[in-house]
Amino acid sequence: MNPAESAAPAPYHQLGGYQAVWRIVEAFYRRVETDDILRPLYPENLEPGKQKLAWFFEQWLGGPTSYSDRYGHPRLRRRHFPFVIDERAAGRWLRLMREAWTEAGVPRELQDPIFERLAVLARHMINAHDDVPREPLGDVYLD
């Protein structure tokens, strides 16, 4: 048997592709809009961030490389330096994200391995006690 035939489809495809990712992103941002911890970290206009998050998830979950095609390597930690992210904010982000995935109808057995990776990613974004450059990068392309 060809190894490609026996490999499980990428999580992106298991979720249902871009439409499923978009449902997750919409559900997440609805929560961010009213969250007392996360809302102050986000810009006034949430719309551009929704699209960027959707493109990031699309790629991160094994789908098209839309994010990197537009912005280069994600370099997420560097892109988040302008925002002071502490342990509480990272935990809240994970909680709201989990709620969004559940609302979007993603089965728990598919969520769990993804959230193991998202937890590592959220911890990596914590920068509140670090001496890092706080000026925004904008939408620059990073190699």
Automatic annotation (TrEMBL):
InterPro entries: GlbO/GLB3-like (IPR044203), Globin-like_sf (IPR009050), Globin/Proto (IPR012292), Hemoglobin_trunc (IPR001486)
Entry superkingdom: Bacteria
Record's keyword terms, sorted: Heme, Iron, Metal-binding, Transport
Pfam families: Bac_globin
GO MF, one annotated term: metal ion binding
PANTHER family the record matches: TWO-ON-TWO HEMOGLOBIN-3 (PTHR47366:SF1)
Similarity remark: Belongs to the truncated hemoglobin family. Group II subfamily.
Name of the protein in its database record: Hemoglobin
